[in-house]
Design brief:
Strand order of the largest sheet: 1-2-3-4-5
Order of helices and strands: HEHHHHEHHHHEHHHEEHHHH
Radius of gyration: 21 Å
Structural class: alpha/beta
Oligomer: single chain
Length: about 350
């Protein structure tokens, strides 16, 4: 999903002309590193590998001579965190949302987009990283404060504390407290759901007065079944629910993970509907539910082999995240650079890994 966002925002689309795009769980609202950021990080890795002597060619040759394990050991951040598309002012001129708002001409050739996310998207990153420890309120506050700053963290905690409970029966050795689930719920909105819906607003010209709207359909995948992208016991799936990339086996109607035996009738029904809906979109550039517009903001909730349409989903949460995002845009690099926040969040969770990738994405 994130890679497609970059292609949509790229200055140089030719000869890679895009006319139809489907984005699944795309964290497109994040800050992209600058060339200077990327050069500095690369130089730090080369230095840690002992590759400091000679010209650039010699340094590159030295780095390439090292084993993969040595390179990973020399990297002070998780692979995937900070290593990716860079604002080079040639292909990418700005952060994705800013680029799309500033120059809608790049969207003229796009005839349709599908933008979606999973109901519990962040669970694969948050509810599986605490190594058997439940998050306490103190750890929740520390993680949220590190990510957002104290003032914004207080607003987020208040809103999510007031939402209806979001619990699931936990399997052994996994988080069990309300704070674990609340952090997951918050992070799903922060990193996946709200950026997806904001992207739909940008594409449909709700956030821009120039350029024609791009016909867009949005969905929230909610089905929980035996078909998963990785083999998981049923009690674990019930705990995580519709987590990151849960729709993929249903979109492609395959058993890539080895778990899609389709013994359950509801799984078969969901797979047929999801597969057919995406194939229809590919053929006709239209989904079998109402298009997203800046007036109705219709989103299809995919479950039980059908699409239930809801308007303006997650409205309160996304309004708050937009407000926080607008405020943070004026703070500068101290907040925009998420490495320190990622480290603090992982420390609060007792983990190092998946979550920091999501934060910097």
């Amino acid at each position: 999903g994130a890679s497609i966002c970059v292609h949509l925002a790229a200055e140089q689309q030719q000869p890679y002309s895009i006319n139809t795009a489907a984005l699944l769980s795309a964290p497109c609202a994040g800050k992209l590193p600058t060339l200077s950021d990327t050069y500095d990080r690369s130089a730090a890795v080369a230095k840690a590998l002992g590759c400091r002597d000679g010209d650039d060619v010699a340094v590159v040759r030295c780095v390439r001579s090292k084993s993969a394990a040595s390179v990973l050991a020399a990297t002070d951040v998780d692979l995937g965190s900070g290593w990716g598309p860079t604002i080079d002012h040639h292909v990418i001129s700005a952060d994705i949302f800013d680029a799309l708002r500033a120059n809608r001409r790049r969207l003229r050739g796009i005839q349709a987009t599908m933008v979606g996310y999973d109901e519990n998207d962040a669970a694969l990153f948050t509810l599986t990283t605490s190594k058997g420890r439940s998050m306490t309120e103190k750890e929740f506050d520390a993680a949220l404060g590190a990510l957002l700053g104290e003032e914004a963290a207080a607003s987020v905690k208040k809103l999510y504390s007031e939402l209806p409970p979001d619990w699931a029966p936990p399997p052994p050795l996994l988080p069990t407290t309300q704070w674990s689930f609340m952090f997951n719920r918050m992070y799903t909105d922060y990193a996946f759901a709200c950026p997806a819906l904001q992207l739909a607003d940008i594409l449909t010209a709700a956030e821009s007065g120039n350029g024609a709207a791009v016909p867009t359909w949005t969905y929230e995948f909610e089905h929980v079944g035996e078909c998963t992208i990785v083999p998981l016991p049923s009690y674990y799936v019930a705990y995580l629910r519709a987590f990151h990339a849960s729709e993929l086996p249903y979109v492609f109607a395959n058993a890539a993970s080895g778990t899609c035996q389709l013994d359950a009738a509801d799984d078969r029904k969901q797979m047929l509907y999801t597969r057919d809906a995406f194939q229809l979109f590919g053929r006709t550039r239209a989904a079998p539910w109402p298009a997203y517009t800046h007036t109705a903001r219709a989103t299809a909730l995919l479950d039980n082999g059908a699409a239930t349409v809801a308007n303006d989903v997650r409205a309160k949460q996304c309004a708050l995240w937009r407000e926080i995002g607008a405020a943070r845009a004026h703070v500068g690099d101290a907040v925009a650079t998420a490495a320190a926040a990622a480290a603090a969040v992982n420390a609060a969770l007792g983990a190092k890994g998946a979550l920091s990738i999501a934060i910097n994405a």
